[in-house]
Write a structure and sequence with these properties.
heterodimer, A: 109 residues, mainly beta, six-stranded mixed beta sheet, globular, B: 115 residues, seven-stranded mixed beta sheet, four-stranded antiparallel beta sheet, 0% helix
Chain lengths: 109, 115
């Protein structure tokens, strides 16, 4: 079967750095997405990786290793507004998105 | 604002009611999706419309019925639902058929409670 694993919950301190990991086993690979979802709101697109390596977008970076079936989302200089759930999703060989259950990130002052 | 709107935002219905959820996208996309989001579970894809053609999803109960009258609008008709259908229903759209990301953009969702 197809599976996306990410931690259920993480806690970090304002101003610090946090890394949210995602491992996947899917039938084929056509890209990996990270989304942010604040409570009661729509998931919003953060990043897309299809080749190995690091993609940087301001305070957020996303890394991919296809050979290891692994990605992480790195958040720097954490702010209180970063408290949200972070969803990892992989597009499989049928171009369907397979979703993880999300990681709830709690930022403490 | 992601360019995808959904109404209503909240809905409470009895098991014998009939209601419809509406989604509209203002992004010029050619694919639209319905997802179910339950607490601490992955997003569950319910239906996909690509170029206004429905992609069958046999695992969704027949008490959920989608309708896509044009590329900008998507409905989910609900009838004789069960309490376990209570969840957040998300609509998304994307531009498919082109190489690259084909990122999905989500609406804010309808929070449904079935009593």
């Amino acid at each position: 079967g197809q599976n996306i694993d990410q931690p259920t919950e993480m806690t970090a301190t304002e101003g610090a750095i946090v890394q949210i990991n995602c491992t996947y086993q899917t039938s084929g690979f056509n890209g990996l997405f990270w989304y942010q979802q604040h409570a009661g709101e729509a998931p919003t697109f953060l990043s897309y990786n299809v080749l190995d390596g690091l993609e940087e977008k301001g305070r957020f970076s996303s890394f991919l290793s296809r050979s290891k079936g692994y990605s992480y989302l790195l958040l720097k200089e954490l702010q209180m507004k970063d408290s949200a759930s972070y969803l990892c999703a992989v597009r499989d060989s049928n171009y369907q998105l397979i979703w993880g259950a999300g990681t709830k990130l709690i930022i403490k002052p | 604002e992601t360019g995808v709107t959904q109404t209503p935002r909240h809905l409470v219905m009895g098991m014998t009611n009939k209601k419809s959820l509406k989604c509209e996208q203002h992004l010029g996309h050619n694919a639209m999706y319905w997802y179910k989001q339950s607490a601490k579970k992955p997003l569950e894809l319910m239906f996909v419309y690509s170029l206004e053609e429905r992609v069958e999803n046999n695992s969704v109960p027949s008490r959920f019925s989608p309708e896509c009258p044009n590329s900008s609008h998507l409905f989910l008709h609900l009838h004789t639902l069960q309490p376990e259908d209570s969840a957040l229903y998300l609509c998304a759209s994307s531009q498919s058929g082109t190489s690259g990301e084909e990122t999905q953009y989500f609406g804010p969702g309808t929070r449904l409670l079935v009593l």
